[in-house]
Design brief:
This protein is of the alpha/beta class and 424 residues long. The protein is 38% helix and 21% strand. The longest helix has 23 residues.
């Protein structure tokens, strides 16, 4: 069983983070835990992601099918018992919606051995269903885009485009269920050009394992630079631990990763931070949440698209702003620390997963672009996989990842003229 009533002096010596999955967030956790506690997390992943597995600051283990519930639970039960027997303080973290959901759904079993920072499953399942998310937005007066929902569980379901102008947006309401769906030309988000394309998407989903809703949503005008990323953490009293907002300047444009921020710059927008905190207090959300927001030039409103019930893959911008959120998570979750005021997150940042060349080719000229390019020269612009403390092998694979982005943007943005590319 996990140790209880942990003293602060024991935390640094005995904490053992276990991270499920390997992405940019995973490596940010690795850096944060080393900086805070000089501890190397155990990473459990189904694939060997070289830029992370090569790190000298983690114990990386490839576990076949660890992304299935049975293997996930068997692996963590065995590991949890082992760590507790060693006198460790195990803390469990996940990367992505899929692992956040698995941990939350099995929290009662996992908390015998691990401390976890995830909300209860009933709440997670409720607010990650986008129909419910938008109902809550309506209740509390938080702006959101015009949306209708199509039932993919009904083979006889009738297509409806809501009368929206084309192009419009189509995406799965439940990303965890969508994870398992297989059909031709599957994308994270569809930018739909006409009704026939929407019909094809809907029919493909109805014919797959996906049995939740398809979101059909008005296309809010504006390029990547109108997007905002918001991350807020709250303690058990629903007081903010930290609140960070950033302006997205460029997104990933590859079909399976579209919507993932590629460049984010610091921008303190109190209006959207206040709305995010209002949402979390309304549903009694204790933990870290990430919100996707877009500025609507037509109305001057910031529209909330969804809530992610975990830190986002781009959460390195929180660290760059001055907050070691992994340390804050550990202290709040394990030591039950309360926060009378939020941790200061005032450092200017430029989060980037692309080289300066991609910025030059992909972002329109203007003061923000000039600021970003200057940040590359001054060292303010930071790629989450670059860390001077790590070994040469990790640095090699990090650079492979970094410079590969040039070919991705050439293929999926520059050659298409901004049109959404098909899946290979």
């Amino acid at each position: 069983m996990r140790p209880e009533n942990v003293a602060e002096k024991d935390l640094a010596e005995k904490i053992q983070p276990v991270i499920m999955g390997a992405d940019f967030l995973c490596y940010t956790y690795i850096k944060n835990y080393w900086n805070a506690y000089r501890v190397k997390p155990i990473v459990l992943a189904s694939d060997d992601i070289k830029a992370i597995s090569a790190s000298r600051f983690c114990d990386y283990r490839v576990i076949n099918h660890v992304d299935t519930e049975e293997v996930f639970l068997d692996t963590l039960t065995s590991l949890g018992k082992e760590l507790c027997d060693q006198g460790k303080i195990p803390q469990l973290l996940g990367c992505g919606d899929f692992y956040a959901r698995l941990i939350s759904e099995n929290k009662d079993k996992l908390q015998k051995y691990f401390y976890t920072s995830y909300i209860d499953f009933d709440l997670l399942d409720n607010i990650t269903q986008k129909e419910n998310f938008y109902k809550i937005c309506e209740e509390i007066g938080m702006p959101y885009p015009k949306t209708i929902f199509l039932d993919c569980s009904d083979p006889e379901g009738v297509l409806d485009d809501g009368g929206f102008d084309y192009p419009l947006i189509a995406k799965a309401s439940n990303s965890a269920a969508y994870h398992y769906a297989k059909f031709p030309n599957k994308k994270k988000i569809f930018i739909v050009q006409d009704k026939e394309e929407l019909k094809t998407i809907y029919e493909n989903l109805k014919g797959s394992s996906y049995d939740k809703s398809l979101i059909v949503q008005e296309f809010v005008p504006g390029d990547d630079t109108q997007l905002r990323s918001i991350t807020v953490g709250t303690d058990v009293d629903l007081n903010p631990i930290f609140m960070v907002s950033g302006r997205v300047m460029l997104e990933d444009h590859s079909p399976t990763a579209i919507g993932n921020p590629a460049v984010i710059i610091s921008e303190n927008c109190q209006e959207i931070l206040d709305n995010a905190l209002k949402f979390m207090r309304h549903v009694r959300y204790h933990g870290i949440a990430n919100f996707d927001v877009k500025y609507d030039e037509r109305t001057g409103e910031y529209l909330f698209f969804e809530v992610n019930t975990r830190p986002g893959r781009s959460s390195d911008y929180i660290s760059q702003s001055g907050c070691n959120f992994a340390q804050a998570q550990a202290e709040e979750c394990i030591l039950h620390k309360r926060f009378d005021k939020p941790i200061a997150c005032d450092n200017p940042f430029v989060y980037t997963v692309v080289p300066a060349y991609v910025v030059k080719r992909s972002i329109e000229d203007g003061p923000e672009k000039t600021k970003i390019l200057k940040a590359f020269k001054t060292g303010v612009a930071q790629f989450p996989l670059f860390w001077k403390e790590d070994c040469l092998r990790q640095k090699f694979w990090a650079r492979v990842n970094y410079y590969h982005q040039i070919s991705k943007y050439r293929k999926y943005l520059w050659k298409t003229g901004g049109r959404q590319a098909d899946v290979d």
